[in-house]
Amino acid sequence: MGMAASQARYLGLTARKTNVEYEGQQINQARTALANQSANTFNDLLALEVPTAPSTQDYTTLKYTYTDGTYDEEISSMSELQNDPDGYNYLVTHFHFADVFTGIQNRLANPQVVEGDVSTKGSTSRDDIGFLEQPTYTVNGYEATTYDQANGPQRDAFERLSAQYPDMNADDMMTYTSADGVIHFVSRTELGGTGDIQDRYIDPNTDTATEVTTLRGNITATEPVNRTYTVDGHPVTAYDPTNLDQKKVYDKLASDYPSIGNNADDLRCYTDDDGNLHFVSQAALEGTEDITDYYVEAGIPTYVGNCELTRYDSTDPDQKAAYEQILKDWPDTDFALADPEDIYVWEYQGQTRFACASDLTSSSISGLDQSLPTENQDRLTYYIAQNVKTKIEVTEKAMIDLDETGRPQSIKYQDSSVVHYLNTETETDEAAYQDAMNQYNYDMQVYEKAIQDINAKTERIQEQDRTLELRLRQLDTEQEALQTEMEAVKKVIDKNIESTFKTFDS
């Protein structure tokens, strides 16, 4: 049993020694990897570039200036000419700053554009006034007037009736309005004849085109001939207070221009090509001068915020100069393409602003909540014209005289006989220098941070290596102890073997 125990002990020590040797190999490999990391960290340190602080000299230049009597000129570049046929030795670029009248485009956030109906008092030239002489017809007791194609209700009724009765000729039509407000159409030719006439209208009960025969006995023609006036080719009729469309416009005009209501019996109406109803005086029509013309424009821009809009006035020299400058600087915009009558202006903090009707309308209808139409509108494009400080730069040939040090001291340009003496100044671009210094400070912070990171990484590597080295020493000590113990056990085994064999030999 003693010998077996010794052999088992020897085997255990051998296994233990093998494990220690294996662990030592692993530690050596780990230390090799740490050495590689340390080498890479050192290479990273070598690759770092130390930032260099900027010098004010790098941002300091010589500046050549002179005064031409009006502006302070500065030379921005000079390039030497060789063998110039006119004898000039430099091509020079110089500049100055001047106030230049400029058209400027801006966009106004949430402009709060307001549109409304606007009463207008205009003037119509006598050259645009004509008249027709014809009998005055009454049909069923109602005065018939010439069909006015610009009159919306008349036009709508005519289009429906002519679709049913293609023989209706617009140029031959006369109309009258019955007591129930129905518009009737009759032929002027038939009225001038001797027989009965066809009377056509839209039946309000069935909403259908209807034709009835009106007996000649219900038609009268008044002599002498009646003179019917036209304005811009539109027939003029008497104001009819029972006509709701006419009454609405009349009430608006009478509110804004009280004088128009002094003699309503003298008022006459016509409808222009845009569908606007105009009021004029019969007495003025019968006169010889231009006539006053009243009308209401619907959906006209009236305010931008609290600022009242007015139409562009070409007779105002300031407005005219600003408007023309804007057209020059913004030729391809909706503003430039708009008719001058569709240009509006308003004053804001002493500044005259311009906008075209289409841009104003686009903003006014853009509000998401139509119950609050002036809220959250899209941006309004508007224009102003004002003096803007502008750099005026010119490049031209020049004769430059140099002093003994090679520094320019005078200059004469090719298109002038004047010799300008140059002032020499040193100019440091403080802003650029400060930017460079800020960049340097930033780069230094980055560099110092990189150094700190490398030092920290190196310290961690060294700490790990010291730990591995300590463990390796422990393994060496353990290895020596195992070797000593193995030798002792081996002696015991050898002694047991020797004593056993001697026993059998005896």
Descriptive account of the structure:
This protein is of the alpha+beta class and 506 residues long. The chain folds into four domains: 2-55 and 433-505; 61-98 and 393-429, no CATH class; 105-118 and 301-389, no CATH class; 127-252 and 261-288, no CATH class. The protein has nine helices and 25 strands. The chain has helices spanning 2-47, 152-164, 188-191, 244-256, 282-285, 317-329, 334-337, 357-364, 430-505; strands at residues 60-67, 72-80, 90-108, 113-124, 129-139, 142-143, 145-146, 173-177, 183-187, 197-203, 208-214, 219-231, 234-235, 237-238, 267-271, 277-281, 291-304, 307-308, 310-311, 343-348, 351-356, 380-402, 408-413, 419-421, 423-428. The strands form five sheets. Strands 24-23-22-3-2-1-25 form a seven-stranded antiparallel beta sheet. A hairpin with a 5-residue loop joins strand 15 (267-271) and strand 16. Helix 1 (2-47) runs antiparallel to helix 9 (430-505). The chain is elongated, with a radius of gyration of 53 Å.
